[in-house]
Write a structure and sequence with these properties.
InterPro entries: CR_Ser/Thr_kinase, Kinase-like_dom_sf, Prot_kinase_dom, Protein_kinase_ATP_BS, Ser/Thr_kinase_AS. This protein is an alpha+beta fold. The protein has two domains: 7-120, 2-Layer Sandwich (Phosphorylase Kinase, domain 1), CATH 3.30.200.20; 127-371, Transferase(Phosphotransferase), domain 1 (Orthogonal Bundle), CATH 1.10.510. Helices cover 31% and strands 13% of the residues. It binds adenosine-5'-triphosphate (ATP) and magnesium ion. Residues 50-56, 58, 70, 72, 103, 119, 121-122, 125-126, 129, 172, 176-177, 179, 189-190, 359-360 line the site of adenosine-5'-triphosphate.
């Protein structure tokens, strides 16, 4: 895949940017390079923070044309240059793709050791922030919305996996990376960790990234990156959307993982027992069972048995498809986080790089604090 980077992305001076864009809010929807001053003024000197991730903070801003943006600030770690790598990866990936279910990148800015990504602003923040977690939030999350958000995420992933050439593995599908716009359309975000797949062979990652609980077992144990690892994460997300359960319950000894709970209900032929109780039975039982079965199909231990994302879209959207007679094998999960084997030199890693729950981690971070909620 050839990327059409803005001509002077990493080397151009602010002067050139100023000339190109000074006060002139060229807003034709194309990717643009902002100056630091423009972003400073758009965000009121970075005064309105809307989120914090493992790689930096996110601020709300307003451009001169009146449109709202989310500005993500990444700091480069001089030694590892990790920040820059994420920045380049995210840009290269996002600047070239447009899809109803992908968040769009409006531009970027390079200033000293700081890198800024400018996204369209999503009024309803993330799936994690707006709809999951507390009962109050989940009560506002109807069955129809759960269905349409699940299907939208599946469509976005299907686009990345099967329509784009070469295809892209997102690597970090989780509720925090599903942003929700004004009309409740879900948009996949955070392609900072995405890797381009140039052929059908799996990519051996030099560091396992992702978020514990959403992480496919084969990816965690070998670093082997395939589209089916995203399918696994999608399956976890789907189970989460339908049940409202935490992805990992760190305080439990048995059935700690949502995939275990769901499989136990499936084996007992009683999947409905795990549908989110706050829905008060306001859903079609047939649909709920089908969605849960799709979630379980996606998290099967054997990656080859997991469906492709286009198949997932087809099953979820076609009311003639029921999964009555389908056999679902047991799910995989990363049971003992300490057993994760990483194909990289660990000596430069600090043991606890990030403590916030549900945060993306690099391979070196193994703390209970990283369990996805
Ligand atoms: N375009 C946007 N519009 C509105 N809110 C956003 C936007 N982008 C990000 N956010 C908010 O900022 C938060 C932080 O985003 P970020 O991608 O940096 O980290 P994260 O996904 O929460 O965690 P991680 O670093 O593990 O990926 C998001 O969870 C979301 O709440
Ligand atoms: Mg994110």
């Amino acid at each position: 895949m050839k990327f059409s980077f803005p001509a002077c992305l990493f080397s151009c001076s602010t002067e050139v940017n100023n000339n190109d864009f000074a006060d002139g809010e060229i807003n034709d929807g194309s990717f643009r390079v902002f100056t630091y001053q423009q972003l400073k003024s758009a965000t009121g000197n970075f005064s309105s923070k809307i989120g914090q991730g493992g790689f930096g903070s996110v601020y709300k801003g307003r451009l001169k044309d009146g449109s709202f943006v989310a500005v993500k600030v990444l700091s480069i770690e001089i030694e590892s240059m990790r920040g820059e790598r994420e920045f380049v990866a995210e840009l290269a990936t996002l600047a070239n793709m447009k899809h109803h279910n992908l968040v769009s990148l409006k531009g970027c800015c390079v200033e000293g050791a700081k890198r800024y990504l400018v996204y369209e602003y999503m009024e309803n923040n993330s799936l994690h922030h707006t709809f999951l977690g507390s009962e109050d939030k989940r009560e506002r999350f109807s069955w129809e919305e759960r269905k349409s958000i699940s299907i939208g995420v599946a469509r976005g992933l299907s686009y990345l996996h099967e329509e784009l050439k070469p295809h892209i593995v997102h690597r970090d599908i989780k509720a925090k990376n599903i942003l929700i716009d004004r009309s409740f359309t879900p948009k996949l975000a955070d392609f900072g960790l995405a890797k381009l797949m140039r052929d059908e062979k799996s990519y051996i990652s030099t560091r396992v990234a992702g978020t514990l609980g959403y992480l496919a077992p084969e990816y965690a144990s070998s670093g082997q990156l395939r589209r089916k690892s995203d399918v696994y994460s999608f399956g976890v997300l789907l189970l989460q959307v339908i049940t409202g359960l935490a992805v990992v319950d760190a305080y439990k000894d048995i059935e700690r993982f949502i995939v275990e709970k769901a499989y136990a209900a499936y084996e007992a032929n009683d999947l409905l027992r795990i549908v989110d109780p706050v829905l008060n039975r306001n859903y079609s039982a047939k649909e709920a069972i089908k969605f849960l079965k799709v979630g379980l199909l996606c998290v099967q231990e054997n990656a080859r048995l997991r469906p492709r994302m286009s198949e997932v879209v087809e099953i979820l959207t076609n009311s003639n498809v029921d999964l009555k007679d389908v056999h679902i094998s047991k799910p995989g999960f990363v049971a003992d986080l300490r057993n994760i084997r990483i194909k990289q030199n660990m000596t430069t890693s600090s043991p606890q790089e990030s403590g916030s729950s549900g945060t993306t981690f690099a391979s070196s971070i193994w703390s209970v604090g990283n369990l996805a909620r």
